[in-house]
Structure formats: structure tokens, C-alpha cells
Automatic annotation (TrEMBL):
Record InterPro entries: YcjX-like (IPR007413)
Protein name per the record: Amino acid regulated cytosolic protein
PANTHER family membership: ATPASE, ATPASE-RELATED
Highest classification ranks of the organism: Bacteria, Pseudomonadati, Pseudomonadota, Alphaproteobacteria, Rhodobacterales
Source superkingdom: Bacteria
Any one Pfam family match given in the protein's UniProt record, by short name: DUF463
Originating organism: Roseicyclus elongatus DSM 19469
Amino acid sequence: MVIGRVADGLGRGVEGVTQAVSEAFFEPVIRLGVTGLARSGKTVFITSLVANLLDRGRMPGLEAAHSGRIEAAYLQPQPDDTVPRFAYEDHLAAMTGPAPYWPDSTRSVSELRLSLRVRPTGLLGGVTGPRTVHLDIVDYPGEWLLDLALLDQDFETWSQAALASARARPEGAAYAALIDRTDTAAKLEEPTAAALARAWTDYLTAARDAGYSDCTPGRFLLPGDLEGSPALTFAPLPAGDSPRGSLAREFARRFDAYTAQVVKPFFRNHFARIDRQIVLVDALGAIHAGPPALEDLRRALAGILGAFRPGRNTFLTAILGKRVDKILFAATKADHLHHEHHPRLAAIMEALVAEARRRADFSGAETQAMAIAALRATVEETRRVRGEDLGVVRGVLEATGKQAALHPGDLPADPAALLAPARDGAQTWLDGDYGVMRFAPAPLSLRAGEGPPHIRLDRAAEFLLGDRLR
């Protein structure tokens, strides 16, 4: 696996070994990676998780909170001085203020440290007293994670697959037409290169907006301080002659620079140090977008897991290089469904990652899938429709500010009813019409000791953190 080869080649100094030994024996650190593709709710998840760990009244599913063994929780400066701090206070104010709104989405890597004073279980607690466990939360865009698959490809291989996807999607028609009239063997002209890169970025943006998940290179969508640089001024080209100095030859060189100078440093500096991971998935959005988007999501999730180094952490691996030993795949926006449909959403999530989970389980990593809502924005109702009781959710529409009730359609009891036609290339659903509304956060009146309302956030925390808080 390419990630393993890169990781094995990383040099680790005495300082890094000393830090790992200190963490193992004195104040353990749980390094939790939070990622997901566009609109999956990463920022909301982190903000609500931290708020509910600081005020644990809504966390009965987290055993250490329910039993009172978490005696205190407090924010501390993060250990990585060169990584931006996750703007927790700003995001919480956006979600819980008098006129609540969704905070800005993830655009780069950020980090936050939450320290928990925990009383151990059993006889150890009476002997040692409370100990401090640090939770380092690393937020990073899922689009960047998908780029790790590029390390296994050269420019020609990536171009072939990327162009095939673009030509199969309506959103790729403009780029396909542009590339068909471009002489890729001609001498490189920067205006031509820039025009192709802009057209490819426009295509990726449109594909993402249409519900597709696998849109690489990810930095084209979230360029940060690399915007306009040669490393982001390339695009896929059809195979053909590429003489020295040609457009095709220069794009291949820039592709190599992108993987070497952008993708690999991201892995080295951030991703390789994660030992617990949650992947947030807007499965409802993909279902609403149609079978092609759902199949694209399934493939993207398999690619995401391929970037992890699953396996069980031991004392030795804690020093030599951590492995992700727990991975949670969470279907978000469960509050868009009546609770009677939550098990069906969880089952669809299980089926979407079945192949990816088998790989991780075989390598020793523990995985789980569930349906959650990090911040509950709706309330449930039962309405009488055509003589039958229908479960709906009601909330404030983000676009209009008006109240609306939603029944998005009955998810099938068997996930194969969705995944099979998606795999077979169906363009529309034959037996169902699945709707999605965008609800705004509901105004909150929180009591002392309570975090924001959620659905199964406590169970997600128990899976990810519970064993390390005993």
C-alpha cells in the first residue's frame, strides 16, 4: 500500500520518540481525525462534540460521562503551533445564538485540544486517582483525503480515469468539448494551461454540487494559499504525443509536483499521526441526487479507507507510527428522517462501506456504521395522510426562514434496492422519489450542564473514545 510505503520512509527524530513514550505512560493522547466530503457536517460535528463533552447532560451513551467518571473537561492550546486552531467558540455562537445559522464549512486543516480529567475504573482508580486524557481533534477536508489515491497513479493513468468520469457526467460536457479542440502536443502556453485548469475546476465544482463525491484533485476545490500556483495549473489530457516542452509534458510534470509537494506533505504532517477516525457521509444527499451519485459515493468511500493504515495500536506502534485502529462511518442528518427510518439509513450506510469495512476488519481495525445528527434541527410529528399515520420531521427552512414538514420518502428495508441499480448504471430511481430540504438550526434554550441536542452523538463518542476513558 502506497501510504504504508510513504509512512515507513518517514524519518522520526528523538524528540518524536520521547513525546510518544510520554503520551503512552503519563497523559495519553487520543488523536481523532474528522473528515467527510462536502456538506457532510464536519464543522457542526466537532463543535457539538466538544460542547457536549464540556457539558455532558446529553451524553448518556458515553459511559464515562454517564457514570460521572469524567470529572472535568477543558480546552487547552493545541500541541501543533503551525496548525490553525479550530474556531470552536465562533462556530458554537453561530449554531446557538439568537438567530442561529450553520457555520462555514471546512476549508483547510485545523486542530483543537480538549483535555478530560477521568477517574479510572476498578482498583486502579482508588490507587492512582484521576488522570488527564487529551483529545486532539484534527479537522481536514475529505477532498484532500481522496487525493492520497493519486500517489498510486501517474498522470496518464489519472487522466484516463478522470476524463472517463467527466465524459459520463453532464457537468463534464464543457471540459470535454474544450479538450477535444486543444492540441496537447503543442508548446505550452500559460494562458492555455490556465484556461484548462479553470475549466476543470468549474467541472469539479459543478459535479460536487450535483452530488458526486469523487472530485480530484481536491485542492482544486479548496486551493487555500496554492491558488494560481503551477501546482494547481494542470488538468487531465487524453493520451498522445508529448514532446519536450509540450502542454502534455508540462501537465505531467505539474501533476508529479502536486503529488510530491502537496499530497505527501499533508499525509506526513497530519494524516499519518491519527489513531481514531470518523468519516461523515451525507448519504441522504447522495440518494436524493440519484443512482450515479450514490455509486460514486460508494467508490469514494472505498478509496478513503484505502488511505488509512488500519490495525491495532500497540506500545511499539505508538512509538514507530500510529495506525488507525477504530473507524466510524456516520451517515449524517438523521434528523431529516423520522426515527422509525433511522435503522434503514444505518443499514444503507453499512452497505455503502461493506467492501471497505471488510478490508479494515481483516487488518484488525474495528469499524462501525451508524446514523447520527450532531445538531438536531427538527422535531418529529405524526400526521394523518390518506387515512394512514405518516412520520414527518418539521423545522425551519434555511432558504426562506419558514416552518416546513418533510417526509423524504420511505427508504427501502433492503439497501440492495438502492445499491444494486446504482452499481448497474441506472440514471433514476424506478420505485421511489427521495426528497431533501435544508433546515436551519433551531433556536435553543439550553439548561445548565447541557450541550446542544443531537442524535446518537453520545454513541459515536463511546465507540471512538470510550475504551480510552476507562
